[in-house]
Request: fold
Amino acid sequence: MNTKWGRTAVMTLALTSGFMYTAQPLQADAATSQEMTQKKVKIDKKIKKLDNEIKDLKKKLQKKMEDYKVTQKDLKKVNASIVETEKRIENRSEIIDDRLKAYQKNDSTVSPYIEAVLGSDSITDLVSRAMSVKTIIDADQNLLEEQEDDKQKLADQKDDLEKTKAKLQKQFQHMQEEENALETKKAENKVKSLELKKQIASKKEEERIAKELKEKEKEAQKLKDLQNTQFVSDDSNVDNDNNAGNGNNGGSPDDGNQSAPDVSGSQAATAAIAEASKYLGTSYVWGGSNPASGFDCSGLTQWSFKQAGYSLPRTAAQQYLATKKIDRSNAKAGDLVFFSYGSGVAHVGIYLGDNRMLDAQNNGVVVESLDWWNQYLVGFGRVSGVN
Reply:
């Protein structure tokens, strides 16, 4: 851009002052264009490399998602086993309790054990019968202790699975932040590529590319600033004893009423929410942006608002920049709600009012409370023309 301005200034000076402007030899211009082209090729290779890194990251995250789902299934099985074991322990305890009562009671008509002892023919027979009764009671007690041991083993197994689940969730968050960083680098390199393209493009294309470059520069700078922003949420309102799901990642498709939410609002807001509601219960797909591929968080919001007639950019960070920021007290159904795990904006959902949202997260597409998510809350954004 400076080169163009310099030449324009010299040409203007030559015309207004009467001096002759001598153009640079064609060979020099050609060499400069060739050098710029080589630079652009290198930058485009960086963009391609970043694309590949993002693809590899998505594959890794998909594997983490599969591990997360397996952990969820294992947790359900362990919880079911714990319930069954507790029932067996309760039944065995009742049997032992009844037998001990009968054994301690003097009424032989009620106690077959006392009757068995008193009905002995000799001392030897008495001792034998008493030992038999004790053996039965000891066997019951041993079985009860074994069942208690099984219950403790299941509890330990559940604790290990919960820790694994929490670890996977933390890795999921880190990978989201890593993707944001890669997307920011990619945006910066696209600006450099466009700048070189502008310099080597024909005069006819310069104005169009200059406008596009300016827009991309602003977008890249905003994304970079957002990525460098550290969000510290006020989690004083988080109710850890009454949150919206599994305690590690918000709500679950098994939580409460997962039917299409009945909300009041503008026609555009209800249309977007109705579209998103079609996919409740479906699995989360990293990078998904349409019903054929499935959805991630920003893919779901982009698609749903598109069907309602409103355009949103692709990522959660870009959507955050594209919306008007509003106070929580002014948020309405159909506004967007954004979250961060530390740096930048990494998650987005559609606000439903009454402290609820509809979003695609690694448990799937769900309606859930904001209680658990408040610890990551950045704020609310309004899509232009929706509310």
